[in-house]
Specification:
Elements lengths: L1 H11 L5 H11 L6 H10 L4 H6 L13 E2 L5 E9 L6 E8 L5 E7 L4 H14 L6 E5 L3 H4 L1 H9 L2 E5 L9 H13 L9 H17 L11 H9 L8 E2 L1
Parallel strand pairs: 2-5, 5-6
Antiparallel strand pairs: 1-7, 2-3, 3-4
Helix pairs in contact: 2-3
Length: 241
């Protein structure tokens, strides 16, 4: 759990040393851990600041300019958020379609490793029968920069984009969804335990995709809009994301 938190924060703020990462764990995650142990964990994962500077860069391009999107399944956004309402932190890894705002797949667990990222993408590609070109945008988290991720994207014809460091606004839709998820679901419900949270999370995402009104979709739900788009009865034109 602690290692996953360090990987996530280290990806968001790669200029953070172990002392700032230790402050993050203590102040934002309520994990009472001393700086020496944080240093040892960072050293074990090779994310101490000097090592991170020497790490070979990913082959995925960093996207500075917005790109046009005009249909579903052209551009997906992928990210990780964490839930701190239990003694153990839980992580949600999810994928959102930039055009329909639909959550195309998600994973809930106590950690997120490289295999969860590629498995989630593999399931989504199969479910939506993706055959043409697809762009997937992520931040610079270690899970997204892994060799497994790069090889998977190459094998499946996916163009993997990375946003600039400390610029979550470049992944705007999935960041907004995470805020909505916490405001409408996490903060408004009581959960008896992890399993109860998992069941209710599934129900909420089904509600979000099938029933929740979206002003930007002309007050349709994401799946209603996808179906209307396939019937040529709705469109958003060309979006720049």
């Amino acid at each position: 759990m602690i290692k996953t938190l360090l990987l996530k924060k280290g990806g968001e703020c790669p200029f953070y040393g172990y002392r700032k990462l230790n402050h993050f764990l203590r102040s934002e995650c309520n994990i009472m851990i001393n700086a020496k142990k944080t240093y040892r964990l960072c050293r074990e994962m090779d994310i101490l600041l000097p090592l991170r500077k020497r790490r070979p860069s990913s082959s995925s391009p960093i996207v500075f300019a917005k790109i046009p999107v005009s249909a579903p399944d052209e551009h997906w956004q992928m990210d990780i958020t964490y839930i701190t309402c239990f003694p153990r932190v839980m992580f949600i890894l999810d994928i959102l379609d930039s055009y329909t705002l639909e959550i195309v797949n998600y994973y809930l667990g106590f950690s997120v490793q490289n295999k969860e990222v590629t498995n989630l993408l593999k399931e989504a590609l199969k479910r939506y029968r993706i055959q043409g070109s697809l762009k997937v945008r992520t931040d610079n988290g270690s899970q997204f920069l892994s060799k497994n991720m790069q090889e998977f994207c190459k094998e499946n014809g996916i163009e993997h984009e990375r946003i600039p460091v400390c610029s979550p606004e470049r992944n705007p839709n999935i960041e907004r969804f995470h805020g909505t998820l916490k405001n409408e679901f996490v903060n408004r419900n009581y959960f008896e335990g992890y399993q109860d949270f998992s069941i209710k999370l599934y129900d909420y995402i089904e509600f979000y995709c099938n029933e929740r009104y979206h002003e930007s979709l002309n007050y349709m739900s994401p799946r209603q809009f996808r179906n209307a788009f396939s019937r040529n009865t709705a469109t958003r034109g060309v979006l720049n994301v």
